[in-house]
Design goal:
Shape: globular
Number of helices: 8
CATH topology of the largest domain: Trna Endonuclease, Chain: A, domain 1
Order of helices and strands: EHHEEEEEEHEEEHHEEEHHHEE
CATH architecture of the largest domain: 3-Layer(aba) Sandwich
Number of strands: 15
Bound molecules: zinc ion
CATH class of the largest domain: Alpha Beta
Pfam family, one: NERD
Distance between the termini: 36 Å
Strand order of the largest sheet: 1-2-3-4-8-10
Helix content: 25-40%
Protein name: NERD domain-containing protein
Organism: Virgibacillus halodenitrificans (Bacillus halodenitrificans)
InterPro entries: NERD
Largest sheet: 6 strands, mixed
């Protein structure tokens, strides 16, 4: 069973918004693309592991810390006699392995994911030891993309190639070990130790002034919205949404981008763009957010 579910990382949500609202440097575009692909790969792996029918707890996306070192585990599986950790890689194309190094063909070296998973395994072991837990850990690097090819595959049983994924699932399903209260305590412990804020986040610099204002269509992400009665309609894809929903969605996006900024009617009116009446914005904020202060010092939480 899924014990901790994966959610879209905050960093990725911010990038999704910035991608639409500012011109990104090619390096930033590359970073954003890698981030998106990485997340998509993890979601694909979730789709496989969520179907496991052995007795297990699945913890998706853990960010943990031990001895002042933060590390991330894409997926962790607790069974009766083992603990599995998975590092998921959504690489596509031809890669080769040579003398402990990974290269994207022809000669572009990438970080060796075996080193990464080895580090996570070691840190997790230290963390468990500190909490008096001893359970054998098995670590794997999973290459999830069916278009991935690895030449000169190292003889390392921690590597799971796309063609070996079904076998992995079958092997896990064949496990007959049962979970006990201790395993549940372990799952709870790991969830409680999970950190929300990632120190690995990397964002381009942006300000309110430099971002494109306006509401974005919830379906096709275009800015081509106009108001029709109580609804906002997209000219590009004809998607309809109530004004209330789209304003609140825009407020959420604004908060995500500017968590330190106070929400005011003036600001949200400008941010949304297409809603002509400030009163309409103010009514929505009054009803759905918490009003703080009086008169011209009013803001919303
Ligand atoms: Zn649209």
């Amino acid at each position: 069973m899924v014990y901790k579910i994966r959610s879209v990382p905050v960093e990725l949500c911010i990038w999704n918004s910035l991608f639409k609202r500012m011109k990104l440097h090619p390096n930033d575009k590359q970073y954003y693309s890698n981030l998106t692909r990485g997340y998509e790969g993890e979601v694909q792996f979730d789709a496989l592991t969520e179907k496991l029918n052995c007795d297990c707890y699945l913890l998706q996306d853990l960010l943990l810390q031990t001895n002042n070192t933060t590390f991330q585990i894409d997926s962790l599986l607790i069974t009766g006699n083992q603990l599995y950790i998975f590092e998921v890689k959504n690489y596509e194309g031809d890669y080769h392995y040579e003398q402990d190094k990974f290269f994207k063909k022809p000669q572009y070296e990438i970080n060796n994911p075996l080193h990464q998973i080895g580090r996570s395994e070691s840190l997790l072991r230290q963390l468990l030891f500190k909490h008096g837990i001893s359970l054998q850990i098995k670590a794997f690097v999973v290459f999830i993309n069916p278009e991935f090819t690895l030449y000169q595959v190292p003889q390392d049983n921690r590597i799971i190639l796309p063609t070996q994924l079904n076998r992995l699932i079958k092997q896990l399903n064949a496990s007959s070990s049962k979970l006990t209260k201790q395993h549940k305590n372990l799952a709870n412990k790991l969830v409680s130790l999970h950190l929300e804020e990632s120190p690995f986040s990397q964002l381009p610099s942006y300000t309110y002034e430099t971002l494109r204002k306006g509401m974005i269509c919830c379906k096709c992400s275009s800015f081509t919205l106009h108001v029709e009665g109580k609804e906002v309609v997209c000219i590009t894809c004809q998607q309809r949404e109530t004004i209330i929903t789209s304003v609140l969605r825009s407020v959420d996006e604004f908060r995500l981008l500017f968590p330190e900024c106070k929400i005011t009617t003036r600001l949200i009116h400008e941010w949304c763009g297409v809603i002509e009446s400030k009163k309409r914005i103010s009514r929505i904020l009054d009803k759905h957010l918490v009003k703080v202060g009086v008169k011209r010092w009013v803001y919303y939480k």
